[in-house]
Amino acid sequence: MQELIKLDLVDLASATALMAIVIGLSVWENLGLELNLVLATGRTILQLAVLGYVLDFIFAFDNAWAVLGFLVLLLTITAIVARNRITQKIPQVLPLVWGSLLLSTTIVILYTNFVMIQPHRWYEPQYVIPLAGIILGNAMNAAAIAGERLVNTINNSHIEIETHLSLGATPQQAIAQYRKDAIRAGLIPTVNQMMIIGLVTIPGFVAGQILSGVNALDAASYQIVIMFMTAFANLLTIILLTRGLSRLFFNSAAQLVR
């Protein structure tokens, strides 16, 4: 296959022209999205440029601590984003999200590294960083959906929960159905994606690999691994998060306190 055709500043400027057209269309249709589109364009350029330079440095530095430090930073950012979508009123949510993401991502990355890919070094940046980034991004979205669903449902169901408690149910029994619904809601996007992947669209990872000159079958094989990693990490993250969240709403006397 042909090697990757590199893009220069002129090519990137040409791509930016597409966003100028998008902004122009927004003005034409009187959508009122111009400022948001300008900000989104600027942030996309800035954030991805910074990411490119940082990854280039880490790959060149080739040090385990640099890789781990970057992953911790990535983990912290994703945890904050997920927490902000769930609720900012409960201080304990951030460490709970952070810990859930850490445990699920660590397990799936270690399993994939030592059982399937088996790179020469466990911290090989070429594999660990992109795989961890994909897993964290997907788990963040799943956690945000499930966590927000559970918190909102509990906040809107105080009377029903207190009725169950007064009839002798434990806190976990009183909200068991809410938790199951939240877990399902968080996992539905993953299941839906797995049902249609490769049929409706070419996944971004596969497209990127093919563009870089990787054999299409090899790219598809990695995408299969990534999808299964994602399903595992998403479900484990949601289970840990919803279990932890459900405990934050009750005190030691099994009383609903939030």
Automatic annotation (TrEMBL):
User: For this UniProt entry, which residues form the secretion signal?
Assistant: none
Q: Ribonucleoprotein: present as a keyword of the record?
A: no
Listed A to Z, the keywords are: Membrane, Transmembrane, Transmembrane helix
The topology of this chain with respect to the membrane is: Multi-pass membrane protein
Q: Which Pfam families match?
A: UPF0014 (PF03649)
Family annotation (InterPro entries): UPF0014_fam (IPR005226)
**Superkingdom of the source?**
Bacteria
So where does this one cross the membrane?
12-28, 35-58, 64-82, 94-115, 127-147, 194-214, 220-241
Compartment list = Membrane
- Keyword Hydrolase annotated: no
Q: Name one GO cellular component term.
A: plasma membrane
What family does the database annotate?
Belongs to the UPF0014 family.
Q: What is this protein called?
A: Iron export ABC transporter permease subunit FetB
Instruction: Please name the source species.
Output: Fischerella muscicola CCMEE 5323
Q: What is the lineage of its organism?
A: Bacteria, Bacillati, Cyanobacteriota, Cyanophyceae, Nostocales
